[in-house]
Amino acid sequence: MAVQELRVVAPLATVHSLYYLAGLLGWQHGYRFTLTSRGPFSKELAQDLARGRAPKPPRHVIKQLQLLVAKLCGNRPYCGKYIVVAALLAAYARLYPPPKDPIAYYLQRHPGVDPLLVKRVAGILSSLGMLPLQRKSHNPQ
Fold first, then answer.
1. What is the torsional sign of CA 15, 20, 25, 26?
2. For residue range 64-79, what is the model confidence (pLDDT) as tens digits?
3. 52 and 39 in contact (C-beta within 8 Å)?
4. Residue 3 and residue 101: Cα distance in Å, rounded?
5. Three-state secondary structure call for residue 53
6. C-alpha–C-alpha distance, residues 39 and 98, integer Å
7. Cα 139 to Cα 98, 136, distances in angstroms
């Protein structure tokens, strides 16, 4: 599904997550995001969406988002939760100081989420270079 179509039919959390991910892909859209339990949120983006004036990403970012959405969603309709999980995982990995294990950090902050879903999304983000690989601790025993 194209990003333009997602803006029309997707819930607000999914749209905000897509814009957040587009920013991580290099698009300088100018929106600032706050992390909430429901995903990244931008007050300015919400206002622009309500007015119908949200900018469209450049083609190269749209292609990268389409690849990401295709990998996350496959043939599943209504896969907004995968996109929100991806955005939150990417955001948590960029906290300072970053958590040693973004997957464990996500599962701690969002109890009840399927760990296999989070691991699958993390694997996809890592394969696309959007999530740093987990650092191994070197504890001599």
1. positive
2. 999 999 999 988 877 8
3. no
4. 30
5. coil
6. 18
7. 19, 9
Cα separation, 38 vs 107, whole angstroms? 14
In the three-class reduction of DSSP (H, G, I as helix; E, B as strand; rest coil), residue 82 is classed as helix
Question: What global pTM score does this model have?
Answer: 0.84
With a cut of 80, say whether residue 133 has pLDDT above it. no
According to DSSP, residue 141 is labeled -
Rounded to whole angstroms, the Cα distance separating 68 from 85 reads: 12
Cβ atoms of 39 and 17 within 8 Å: the answer is yes
* CA distances (Å), origin 79, targets 65, 95, 97, 121: 14, 25, 30, 12
